[in-house]
Specification:
With 394 residues, the protein is of the alpha/beta class. The protein is 45% helix and 17% strand. It folds into 2 domains: 136 residues, P-loop containing nucleotide triphosphate hydrolases (Rossmann fold), CATH 3.40.50.300; 247 residues, no CATH class. The longest helix has 22 residues.
């Protein structure tokens, strides 16, 4: 079975002396549970896995019960250490308070019970972690599968990855594209929106949120103001509602709205967002055209390529490795800006879809310390870019 790189990090922390709760978060269907199953097969300490999928949201006593069961099992086996794993923890209301109570009890009583928590809603996890568990956890973010991973696991080439994206569970379906699209929409998107957003967060206009996702996916790689969105969405409400919903979709690892870079933290959010899917499968599954048709359309394929580059950068930014923006000033535009500390790199993806040529020069003139990278066939091809570590660009 293919092993993602995060497995070694999780294993290393599980084998360390008990210090922090390990929190593994990330979108649905990226292999978080598989990582844990691989971990449990490879470590020597006794462990207990529990999932909150079918537990009523108000039953936070359930956490106390599984925790106590782990203590009893540890005692019965006379083990000097034990690992408790709880999956989909964010589904339990006030989960963080119960976790804090039990973790502190074990700490105070020198019970060497280690804990790993998993969740697919980064927003709800983060709320619980900051409210009750400050200083008690480390977060490991597991993102969508990269081109390198899909190539190693399934033998995909770059073009296949750019269209079908990085959902490993959908890989066997790509020869029947209609079936594949239905799987992405029904089993992945609908489940993520229903279980990670609508069931766990108050949403006054669920139809609007779903329409926003569809619009954002189709416009991935393009800048669209909230005001223009109001004209394309039914029952759109106001721009504040749209911005809030876009943030929720980002927390589920579906799509995000990149902010316009200005160099000033105060002004960063003043521009229109640039839609960006976290996984190109979300873009491909929303459209009516198939892989072969899109590949033969240079303009449309250029959009797919730019979105694939953006998805790769967005996932790395989601892990906290750098901040990701776009830049536009008058007629000049740069596709992506990545910022890490005081280091700044401007990235332009050249294809038949992107005709702007002055953007990089204008950006470097305004921000002289920045580096410039052009992704093009005669410099750094996009399929090679998807294989490198973006930190090498700083």
């Amino acid at each position: 079975m293919f092993e993602r790189s995060e497995l070694q990090l999780i294993k290393k922390r599980a084998n360390e002396p008990r210090r922090f709760i390990q929190v593994i978060s990330g979108p649905r269907q990226v292999g978080k549970t598989t990582l844990i199953n691989q971990l449990l097969e490879q470590i020597s300490m006794p462990a207990k896995y529990e999932a909150a999928d079918d537990v009523p949201a108000g039953n936070n006593v359930w956490i106390d019960q599984v925790w106590e069961a782990a203590r009893l099992k540890m005692k019965a086996e006379k083990s000097r250490q034990f690992l408790l794993v709880i999956d989909e923890i964010q589904k339990i209301r006030n989960w963080s308070e119960s976790v804090k109570k039990n973790w502190d009890y074990d700490t105070n009583n020198k019970i060497n019970l280690k804990v790993i928590l998993l969740g697919s809603s980064r927003l709800l996890l983060q709320q619980g972690l900051t409210e009750s568990l400050a200083g008690r956890f480390e977060n490991i973010i597991v993102g969508h599968w990269t081109f390198t991973e899909m190539h190693k696991a399934f033998g995909w080439d770059a073009e296949t990855y750019a269209w079908f994206g990085g959902y490993p569970g959908s890989a066997p379906l790509i020869d029947d594209e209609g079936r594949w699209k239905s799987y992405i929409r029904d089993s992945l998107v609908e489940t993520s929106i229903s279980k990670d957003i609508l069931m766990l967060t108050r949403i006054d206009k669920p139809a609007l949120l779903k329409n926003l996702f569809e619009l954002g996916s189709l416009y991935s790689g393009q800048v669209l103001s909230f005001t223009k969105m109001l004209g394309q969405l039914h029952d759109a409400g106001n721009t504040t509602t749209l911005s809030h919903y876009l943030g929720l979709l980002a927390s589920a690892g579906l799509i995000t709205g990149l902010d316009k870079y200005s160099g000033s933290p105060v002004k960063i959010r003043s521009g229109s967002p640039k839609f960006q899917v976290y996984n190109n499968a979300l873009l491909a599954a929303q459209g009516s055209k198939d892989f072969r048709t899109i590949k033969n359309d240079p303009v449309q394929w250029g959009r797919i390529v730019e979105s694939a580059v953006g998805a790769y950068l967005a996932n790395e930014a989601m892990k906290g490795r750098f901040s990701l923006y776009y830049w536009r000033e008058r007629n000049d535009e740069v596709d992506f800006i990545i910022e890490r500390g005081t280091s700044l790199t401007a990235i332009e993806v050249k294809s038949t879809f992107t005709h702007h040529t002055k953007g990089l020069a204008s950006f470097i003139k305004k921000f002289p310390g920045a580096k410039a990278v052009t992704i093009a066939d005669n410099t750094l091809p996009w399929y090679e870019f998807l294989r490198i570590d973006p930190l090498e660009l700083f």
